[in-house]
Predict the 3D structure of the following.
Amino acid sequence: SKKITAQELQNYLKKFPATIGVGGATPAASGAGISFPATDSASSDGNTLDDYEEGVWIPNLKFGGNSAGMTVGNANGRYTKVGNKVTYLAVVDLTNKGSSTGNATINNLPFVATTGYEEMPQPFMAYNMAANFVSVTSYTQSSQIILCGNKAAAATTIANLTDADFGNTSTIHLSGTFILE
């Protein structure tokens, strides 16, 4: 076996690209890594990583499916999609909850969750709420996040949050994961 110097190893490694393009994707011109196509290039083999994406999304808080008179100071989110799994982060800061009534949901998810896998509980943080909660949780259903809470320590059920649970300056921070449709 021949020993090589550090300089010889560096020269050898320079022959390999720093970025690899998968599925016809053009390797990135800057940085190092694996480039995936802009659209999903689905593989028939479930053990093949065929898609990766990072992006931003705008979460829309609604009460009963509406947001009449609601004003939001900040609403933003980020997501990472690896294969068929999406992990998201989001924050919504209200400045006026408006006049809509009904169950609280976060709409405008960047992808649709698979039926049967949507009800994985996901805790979140809530500030300046109109009601005090022992715990808050959420779950993804299709293309929205349902917000739930437990107001009593001895309660055995968790109920959907509604407009009555929010104040004009409520803030929620969410994170979660779901499987794609």
The helical segments are 6-13. The longest helix spans residues 6-13. The mean pLDDT is 84.
